[in-house]
Amino acid sequence: MIALKKSIPVLFLLLICGTAFAQNFSWITPNKTYLKLYVAEDGIFRVSHGDFIQAGVNPSNIDPRTVKVLFKGGEIPLYFEGEQDGSFDPQDFLDFYGKRNYGGLTTTYQASFGPTVQDYITNEFYNLYSDTSVYWIGWDGPNGLRFFNSSYTVTNQYGNLYSFERIHIERDSVYSLGVTTNPNSDYRYFNNEKISGEGWFWRNMFAPAGFNTIGGSFTIPLLSQVPANCTVRIFAFPNSRDSSFNEHKLRLRINSTDIVTLERDDYNRFDTTLNFPSTLLSASTTNSVTAIYEPTFQNPAATPSLYFDLFEIFYPKEFSFQQNECRITLSGNDTTSAFFKVIGYNSSNPLSIYDVTNSIKITNISSDSDTLFFTGKQNGDFVITNKSITRKPFRVASRQVPDLVSTSNGADYIVIYNKLFESQAEQLRAHRQTHDNFRSIKADVESITDIFNFGMESPAAIRLFVNHVYSNWQQPRVGYITLMGRGSLDPKNNKLNSNFYKNFIPVYGNPPTDGYFTNFNFDGFTYFHQVAIGRMPVYTPQEAQDVVDKIILYDSEPPQSWWKNFIMITGGPNRNEQIQYQTQSNQFVNQYLTPPPVSGVISKVYRNDSAGFITFNYKDSIRNEINRGGLIVNFIGHAASQDWELGLEDPATLSNGIRLPLVLSMTCYTGKNSEPNLRGFGEKFLYTPNRGALGFLGSTGWSFSGAGNQLNDFLFRGFSQDTLRRLGDLLKFANNNMAPDSGNFQVRNMINCYDLLGDPASKLLLPEGPEFVIGQTDYRITDQYPLVGEEVTWTIFPKNYGLYVKDCVIRFEILKNGQPFRFKDTLLTNFAFLDTASYTFSIDTIGNYSLKATLDYTDNYPDENPANNVITIPLPLRNISYTPLKPIDNSVIITDSVEFVGLNPQVDLRRNNVKVILQADTNRNFTNPLLNFSNNSVNGVATRVMFRIPQPDTNIVYYWRTNAVINGDSAGWSETKRFLYNPGVSYVPGNRNNSTSRLATGDSVVTLYTRYPGQYNTNSISGLFYNGTGYRLLNSPGQLQVKSYGNNGSEASYFILPGYQFFIDGGSYPGLNLIKARKLTGKLVEFRNFAMTTPQSSDSVLAFLNTFDTTHYLMTAISSYANPSDSLHADCKLKFKQFGSTMVDSVTTFGAFFTWAFIGVLNSPPIPGAEEFNIPDPSCPNGYCPSVATVVSSFLSTKGSLRFSMGPAHRWKFFEWNRLLPAGSTVNFDVNGVNTFGNVVPLYSNLSTYNLTLIDTVNSFLFPELQLTANVEIDTLAGLESPEFRSLYFKYTPPAEIIPDNYSFVKSDSIVNEGAEVTLSVKNYNIGFVPAGTVVYRWTANAYNGLAVLKTDTVYVPLQPDSSFTSTVTFNTNGLKDPETTIDTLDINFEVGMLNQQNDYYPFNNFAFTDIVIVGDSTGPSIVVTYDGEKILDGDIIRAKPDILFKFFDDSKLSYSLEDTTNIFIRQDGKRVYYNFAGQLNPAITFNAVNESNLKVTVSYKPDLGDGSHLFQYYGADKDGNKDTVVNNAYVSHDFAVRNLFNYPNPMMSDTYFTFDLFASDSPEKCSIKIFTVAGRLIKDINSPAKVGFNRIYWDGKDNDGETMANGIYLYKLILEGGGKTETSIQKLAILR
Fold it and tell me: DSSP letters of 536-552?
């Protein structure tokens, strides 16, 4: 629809708009309730008591005298009915004058590559963002501003009975970016400011009839009958130019009268106001205004066009009511009053008159019949309503704004969001606060708009808010601004069909720039970032959730290898540009990414056009590289807003998961994020869930190669040299470094147009230091099942996912039973990314082992996360499967009976319940096995199963597999093996059909014969299918497509073929483009471009078409116009028709913007969907319509392969293959060797001699396995039919398979005393294919102090297949038991191997284990100590120089020697008594090894003791660690005294003992006891030896005569003599019988 608007004269409008209100962000009080009023038209608006209540505000608490209406931060007058009583009563109301939100005065700048300078100013009727104005009602405080009530009257009448009213006819439906003389070279229209010719227009007019006329209609029933001059204004802007002068002509018509023809030259605008008489208008009929575009271009091939904007008419409108309303708008500056009369008045209706210019409410009126009289100023704008005012704001809401102004606020991070995304904004804010420790807040865009632009939608509000935060909030200043919400370049849905017009967070400029919001140079036009900013262009809450989820999940990602990957992609339409872009990319790689500190890994996907301008299809490469993961993806090339040169069209096709890169899209358009009718390329990267990108940096407009390369350089410099990781900081660093050169248009454009899509605070995962990582699979080990004593090399592959370091300490550890057993430290130097470190070791004891490696063991990098620096792997020492051995996979059985052989599990068959299972079938799924064998009585090293094939058939593949069940637990099915039955396939080379040449029975040579599908694993076949007789190349669905559109930017033409695409861009290849493609394969044969500028061009096209035959496709596209231009001649068109074209006759010129796409085959009818032709049409974008032709067909693959794996081998023989080779095809073989470390080494390539290929010179010991690849190919130009691979015939000799029977050990004894001799034997088998030559048998024991070699036996007699050998060892156990234990289990290891470079089929099972128990002394030793030949008690008195004898007894049979002095010793008074002093024997103590029966050792000790108490401690430990201890406390005195003289019993009957303690340094010389009667008569004299200490002397109760003494009381005297001293003591005794 056309908008018909009536309004006041422009001059008066400018006066109203000129009323300025100072920007004061404190105009509104935070957290206080206001009414927010939304107005979208001009007029008097009434707000009632009920409106307050409806909005949730109780008016009873409001003093109406304080009510205020605010607009743009300032107070405007209102009229409040009933306020005088100070009470807001139900019948009270207020009136105010409101107006819609006009576009207003708008500056347009010159379209220039130089400085941004003003071109012209327009007074826009429509606002770019919203037509809604916002008014605010507040209360409290002083009284509000009111309309002045005027009852003033005058008698002089106003001079006219009419005023001029504006009719504005405009429809915004198409947007022009502004002037460009050539879209391929004149890029001025990519200025972010509004430039010449830019803006919303009604229509793009073209010259052809039907497209060159525009107009509008209107009715004016109040047209004054007094003739007057009217005006009409138009605005239009040329969209093309010609060499002729004033080539643009625009004829204006009012109703049926042409009033003028206007002319303009080149790009000069039409902005003209014309006069015409009002008599051309009609008050009774509909009027029309029309513009007709009639250009006069000299170039007939040109497409003249003109953007038309508006009509604006001023006509005289009489003073009269219409529908009870009248608007009189007067111009001029005359403020004197005059008398006005208005007809059509109804005196019975209410009346209000407001002069909204002078803020007057006119109250003194009069009337006569239907005429109203009033007095007003002659410059007034009178809004007269002759009825109750019912106009209300279309929305009234109560509103409180948060405090975003206070200088006490502070933030590092701010999310500016639309309330639709409040939940997601809070999640992101909280994440930044907890994860990054940011002071983070969120601010909704409505609050920002309310406070900083008075509620009027505009991007300026956000800029003012961020500036206020930056300048006034607490330090440190805000660092990051995230805009959560998509913007729109069509926020009012002018185009009507815009699917994404909603303006959640507004954008500035077209192309838009988000840098505008964080640059505070308000007088400049270069928006370098003073605060890092990014936008999340989300359109739905789900999109917002998906983006926030990706951001949060990204931040929590554990270290991964893709952190070090950098994906560098380049394009270019021609070789020169391709080389230029690759050079730029390589410079970044070599300068910033591969050297330290980044030391990155580079994946290059470079577009390279070979001769003939063929572009390799790098689409899959781009997608695959991104899917594998990269920290940064950098693209340099050309692009549209939806793709990278067709290399990647839809990020939703990616599957990179959380491996989210920062995408640097250094090309045009891909950063678009506010297009109203589509989602931009970069947006899709961001909002697509579970894939895409963390952030996307791309241009919203053009990208210039030079300045774009400079921006790219600064981005990588900031990343590499300044270690910047946050996305916003990278862009801020780059554009701030470019800002000094922003006088250059290209530099300024790059700074402004490159926007970051994503969270600017998101931090790239590559750390700012090293990040060491070792995964649990990052290793290689030479033997996963090592033998005891076998040398094993463990190689780990540590990774540094962070920055380069000079060195890193790695500790290798062997753990036994989870405890450290052995370790080695290794210094890894120059650690950049991926590295290797190795540890060679051997296991010398049986046990539960594991290996552990720790990166940065010494913690030299404390900031590095140690959580993933450790790898621990198990190290099993045996096999528990029933392992298949015979027949060899894919081998041929020449009899109808087959023997299956499998190796039994290496578990104790006597102690475990073991069952082995074997199945055979003709179905690889074993749904109904022909053989289902199981055996619960397993013995020996192998189980053999004989099977007779029920119905032998040479065309059937037989499958077999094995399993083991141990104690109810299944080990799992083995890999499925296969064999064929074919008695005639084995032959002597060169004589395949001679049956007499069959190998003799028992020959160990194995024949492999592969010819059927079931003999190949799925992953070994690529690009082939089985047709019943062999493998042929696949026919795959494919597509040929041609797009004819143009040759630049988003208007690019292209050809798509299987595996190739040809992108016509950069202004290349104008005219006609043809491709010859193979019909069989879809492959490109030849590309030709014909400029079509001369009459000979058509002949050249015909000559090229004559080279086609029915095996080719013809693909045709016009990419752009040619100037000058010739046409296709009749004979050439006829030739196109022979290919099926039905539209070639429409191609009349190549000098216009015609598009033509066609695909055909010679002498074939038209292919549906394979031809389209279009001419320019205004309904198409920019007026140009693309043409697309598509053919979907089946195309033959050109390459395929089959892979075969053979071995291990004892000796390689030869192989042959059978194939069918049509002309132009090959089936050749590559042979690779696999060495013992698993490394693949090429041996032969491209072998073509199919009937005999000898490989007997290949060293099978160096390469025990071979990999063969059959390459099936067809020549892309000459091949007509797929070759066919039919079979492979391969001969080799498998090796021996030697294996000891782990449970055939025979022992002379299982439990022996230490020192005893023991004999063991074990059986060894060869169940392989050839004799085992020289065999080495090695016996070892895992002794407590290391590996002990018991015996090594080399047997030179070959061990024949299916035979055994018993190995025996006899050894003494002395020294093998751990002395720390009484009973020690000794692990015995047996290992068998072969010398002379012989392979073993399964090397992991060449060992066996058993053990014996060595019993040590379980009884502890005993100690006996005597002092001068006697034992003492604690506290006993001993001599000062006693003879101490320490005897050590042990029940074991082991002998003791001087080596055992460590465990047998004496401590005196807390100090050890050493046997030696400084290498000399201690004379006081003597160690004697006795070894007689149980007495093993005596120790003689003769100390010289001083007076007082002495502590003696005697220690002894036997060889098994058993211990005994004796402790004595003794007393020494040099006095000569008797203490404690008694006799017992006393009274005595028949005998008694005299006891006493002697304190002396040595024994007395004489001791006697004399017994007396109480009268003093001596009756008994006893002489007895005495000693120091306790003494006990016996008396039998008889006198000196031998007579028994009578009852009574007696006296006895003890006399001791020694050392010249005598000591006596007297006591009594009684005899009572």
Answer: E---SHHHHHHHHHHHH
φ, ψ for residue 1491, nearest 5 deg: 55, 45
What lies within 8 Å, CB to CB, of 1450 at 6+ separation is 1417, 1421, 1422, 1456, 1494, 1496, 1518
| CA 780 from centre of chain | 26
In single-letter form, the type of residue at position 15 comes to L
Dihedral through CA 794, CA 799, CA 800, CA 805, nearest 10?
Answer: 30
DSSP, collapsed to helix, strand or coil, labels residue 736 as helix
Q: Which residues of 46-64 are buried (b: 16+ CB within 10 A; e: fewer)?
A: bbbbebbeebebebeebeb
Look up tokens 């002069």; give the residue: 355
Q: Which two tokens stand for residue 887?
A: 């027949």
Tally helices (H) and strands (E) across the chain: 14, 107
> Up-side HSE of residue 911: CA atoms within 13 Å toward CB?
5
Is it the case that residue 7 has pLDDT exceeding 50? no
**In this structure, which amino acid lies at residue 1556?**
F
CA atoms of 1090 and 600, how far apart (whole Å): 45
Q: What are phi and psi of 46, to 5 degrees?
A: -115, 135
| Amino acid identity, position 1456 | Y
Element of type H or E holding 1265:
strand 1265-1274
The amino acid occupying position 1570 is K
Location of structure tokens 């060449």: 1406
The sheet carrying 805-816 orders its strands as 819-831, 805-816, 849-855, 870-874
Buried b (16+ CB within 10 A) or exposed e, 317-349: bbbbbeebbbbbbbbeeeeebbebbbebbeeee
Cα 1192 to Cα 1171: distance, rounded to the nearest angstrom: 13
Whether the bond into 1545 is cis, omega within 30 of 0: yes
Which token pair is 520?
């505070």
Structure tokens at 272: 């003209």
The two tokens of residue 707 are: 């300045």
Tens of pLDDT along 943-995? 999 999 988 888 899 999 998 888 887 767 888 899 999 888 754 444 443 33
- Burial class, 25, CB count within 10 angstroms (exposed 0-12 / middle 13-18 / buried 19+): middle
pLDDT tens, 384-431?
999 999 999 999 999 999 999 999 999 999 999 999 999 999 999 999
1116 neighbors 1145 (Cβ within 8 angstroms) = no
DSSP string, 696-724: EEEESS---HHHHHHHHHHHHHHHHTS--
For the chain, the straight-line distance linking the first and the last C-alpha, in angstroms and rounded, comes to: 154
Of 1610, 1584, 1586, the residue nearest 1597 (C-alpha): 1610
Classify residue 1600 by burial, with Cβ atoms within 10 Å: 0-12, 13-18, 19+.
exposed
Q: How confident is the model at residue 1409 (pLDDT cuts 50, 70, 90)?
A: confident
Query: Regarding beta strands 805-816 and 819-831, do their DSSP bridges make them parallel or antiparallel, or are they unpaired?
Result: antiparallel
Q: What are the helix (H) ranges across 239-302?
A: none
For residue 1098, the one-letter residue type is: S
Taking the C-alpha atoms of residue 1566 and residue 1614, their distance in angstroms, rounded to an integer, is 11
CB 313 within 8 A of CB 325: no
**Cβ-proximal residues to 934 (8 Å cutoff; 6+ apart), any chain:** 915, 916, 917, 918
- 3-state SS, residue 750: helix
Q: Which of 608, 496, 486, 505 is nearest to 547 (CA)?
A: 486
Contacts of 1350 (CB under 8 A, 6+ apart): 1339, 1340, 1341, 1369, 1371, 1388
Cis, bond preceding 295 (omega within 30 deg of 0): no
- d(CA 699, CA 510) in angstroms, rounded, equals 12
Single pTM value for the model: 0.65
